[in-house]
Specification:
GO terms for molecular function: DNA-binding transcription factor activity; sequence-specific DNA binding. Keywords: DNA-binding, Transcription, Transcription regulation. Belongs to the LysR transcriptional regulatory family. This protein is α/β, with parallel strands linked by helices. It has three domains: 82 residues, Orthogonal Bundle (Arc Repressor Mutant, subunit A); 100 residues, D-Maltodextrin-Binding Protein, domain 2; 92 residues, D-Maltodextrin-Binding Protein, domain 2. Helices cover 41% and strands 25% of the residues. The strands form four sheets. It has a five-stranded mixed β-sheet with strand order 4-3-5-14-6. A hairpin with a 4-residue loop joins strand 1 and strand 2. The protein starts with a helix and ends in a 10-residue tail after the last helix.
């Protein structure tokens, strides 16, 4: 007879692409995960995974079994959570991905009191600036800043997120304060490379207006973009949740070129077609209240 532990191990391995990563997510040893896989394959009388020294792939039988196996695991998790929630308890595991800088500066401090109030929630928070696939990477939800690029996601807005054009006072004294988009094109820029392009985007009356500055520095980390701007290397367009404190302290100055950057949001998104648990909804509601509207990190004035 099939055991749910074996089905869960198979789904985790299929999603993670390796036994070792699946074991990490399940918080089990590799040997236990391997044993559960072997026992399930023996019970089914079928080989579900091709194993080599370099990679692990699903067999034809494995692909056919995965869709229903994933549904079974999800249903069992939701059923167990529903029973606990009927008793007024938020419980069970959650796996959420979030950006590094926002996670460190704002998401973590907002989550800590919530988790302290709900000790039966088992949250795994993965901080990574790369664009993860919420469904195939096995996340219950992702927290992100910006536009929503994946149409397979259902998004909940947690807070508006203004992006501000900033530079250090020293840089502006040496290079002049740009007052228009034309002025901005002659300036040195610090660009967040995970967005893929070295440009500044603004809202115009007929759509997006794109200005390309001179590349001074490209970095894939928001903290370092802010620090480079404070060091006087150039102008940066960064979220208020990163640069707000530096503006309040006088380390950075907001630049007004007559146009606002494109509107963005802090949002939580979960895969389409997956019924979000009560604990995920509770976390989203808590974050929305904690961040505020306008959010507390917006600079004074």
């Amino acid at each position: 007879m099939l055991k749910i532990e074996g089905i869960a191990a198979f789904v985790a391995v299929a999603e993670a692409g390796s036994v070792s990563e699946a074991a990490r997510r399940l918080r089990l040893s590799k040997s236990v995960v391997s044993e559960r896989l072997a026992e399930m394959e023996k019970t089914l009388g079928a080989t579900l995974l091709h194993r080599t020294t370099r990679k692990l792939t699903l067999t034809e039988d494995g692909l056919a079994f995965l869709e229903r196996a994933s549904r079974i695991v999800q249903e069992v998790r939701e059923a167990a959570a529903d029973l606990a929630e009927r008793r007024g308890t938020l419980t069970g595991s959650l796996r959420i991905a979030a950006p590094v800088t926002f996670g460190r500066m704002h998401l973590g401090p907002a989550l800590y009191p919530f988790l302290a109030d709900h000790p039966e929630i088992e949250l795994t928070l993965d901080l990574d600036d790369r664009r993860v696939d919420a469904s195939s990477d096995g996340y219950d939800a992702i927290v992100r800043h910006g536009p929503i690029a994946d149409s397979r996601l259902v998004a909940w807005k947690l807070a508006p997120s203004r992006r501000l054009l900033v530079a250090s006072p020293d840089y502006l004294r040496g290079n002049g304060m740009p007052a228009s988009l034309a002025d901005l094109g002659d300036q040195r820029g610090i660009f967040y490379t995970n967005r893929g392009v070295a440009d500044w985007r603004f809202q115009g009356p007929d759509g997006a207006i794109i200005v390309r500055g001179k590349l001074a520095l490209g970095i894939n980390n928001g903290d370092m973009c802010r620090d480079a701007a404070i060091a006087g290397l150039g102008i940066a367009l960064l979220p208020a949740f990163i640069v707000g404190p530096a503006i309040n302290q006088g380390l950075l100055v907001e630049i007004d070129v007559g146009y606002r950057p494109e509107v963005e949001f802090i949002f939580m998104a979960h895969p389409e077609g997956r019924n979000p648990s009560a604990k995920l909804r509770a976390i989203a509601d808590h974050l929305k209240k904690t961040f505020g509207d306008p959010p507390y990190w917006d600079p004074a004035g």
